[in-house]
Amino acid sequence: MTEVHVCCGVGGTGKTTTSAAFAVAQAHAGRRVAVITIDPARRLADALGIGALDNEPRAIDLPDATGTLAALMLDRKGTWDAIVRDRASPETAERLLANPYYQAVSTRLSGSHEYMAVERLYDLVHDGDYDVVVVDTPPTQHVVDFFQAPERVRSILDRSLLAGLFDPNRFVGPATRAAFSVIERLAGQGVMRDIRTFFELFSEISQTFRERSAAVAELLRSNRTRYWLVANAEAPERNDLLGFLGELQEREMRFAGFLVNRVAAAPLGPFPTREELEKLSDAPEGWAETVPRLARLPEEAVARAQDQDARIDRLIAKSQGAPAWFLPDLPDGVRSLDGLRRLAERLPPAAPARGDRRR
Amino acid sequence: MRLIDHRLVVVLGKGGVGRSTVSAALAVAAAEAGKKVVIAELGEAAVPPLFGMTGRSFAFRAARPGVDVWSLTVPECLEEFAARKLRLPPFARRVVRNRLVTTFVDAVPGLHDLMLLGKIENLISDPRRGDPVYDLTILDAPATGHGLTLLQAARTMTDVTRAGPFYELAKAIEVFLADRDRTATVLVTLPEALPVSETSELADQLVEEGYQPHTIIANGVQDDPLPPPPSLDAVHASLARVAHGERLSELVQAATARRQRHVDALTDLKDRVAKRGFRPPRVVPYVANRSVETMGQALYAQLREDT
Question: pTM surpassing 0.80?
Answer without folding.
Answer: yes
